[in-house]
Amino acid sequence: MTVGSTPALPDRSKISWPFVLFFVLVHLLAIAAFWFFSWSALAVTLLLHWFFGSIGICLGYHRLLSHRSFQVPRWLEYAIAIVGALAMQGGPIFWVAGHRLHHAYTEDEIKDPYSARLGFWWSHMLWLVYPQPEFFSYELYQRYASDLVKQPFYRWLNRYFLLLQIPLGLLLFSLGGWSFLLWGIFVRAVLLWHSTWFINSVTHMWGYRTFETSDNSRNLWWAALLTYGEGWHNNHHAYPHVAKAGWRWWEIDVTWWVIWGLQKLGLARKVNMPPKF
């Protein structure tokens, strides 16, 4: 990772202006939503934060697609992937490929897309502002999610995921006007973005360590509450293919409860459980 004694750090000379403009616009519309506040709109936001965050990202993109820590029928897998795409965090091939690289080269300044060794802001969001081609060029990153690339559905969803916000927005507007639209799309997106990004940043900086992994991953209770169990990050890095992130009784893992429920219904099988320790 070095040339002589100088670290070969990611190139920060090229800013992704489309992302920056999109990011700023969504945040501005989230702020504007406070002029259209209603308690029902807040309830919709929290419901969608859980549904898109816990079911779509944590259960779907992460534990199911990235790590294959359990299996579900193909129709259900595709439905969950659509929920993940509605979270507005990228298509499934992009998300899965980046996360697999994160685990393969955890905290490596070059090969980990959001290495925590490059600082809080880099791992939290600057890796999106200064996109490195190997993580953002489809022709390059697709090799790390070849199982998804083989399926036309995932190639389609990876390309058109952002368009799913249109029918969602129309539905929200029909149900509650501008209040539901602004809170359900933009406030929800901002809250869910930063909740997810906290796993890349703060859980590699603060918290306790149950396992002496080679990286600096940590278990952080408040991050786990915000992300429905993903904040038990040291547990996850020690055993990434285990479906359950919270292992001790106080390590609340809301996403695991859903996986457990699917298992009891016969919809989840080959569920990888933690070893006894």
Automatic annotation (TrEMBL):
It holds the Pfam family FA_desaturase. It comes from the Bacteria. Its cofactor is Fe(2+). Residues 38-256 form the Fatty acid desaturase domain. The chain crosses the membrane at residues 15-37, 43-64, 76-98, 157-175. The keyword Oxidoreductase applies. GO terms for cellular component: membrane. Keywords: Fatty acid biosynthesis, Fatty acid metabolism, Iron, Lipid biosynthesis, Lipid metabolism, Membrane, Oxidoreductase, Transmembrane, Transmembrane helix. Coiled coil: none annotated. Its main location: membrane. One of its GO terms (molecular function) is oxidoreductase activity, acting on paired donors, with oxidation of a pair of donors resulting in the reduction of molecular oxygen to two molecules of water. GO terms for biological process: fatty acid biosynthetic process. The keyword Membrane applies. It is a multi-pass membrane protein. This is Acyl-CoA desaturase. It comes from Oscillatoriales cyanobacterium SpSt-418.
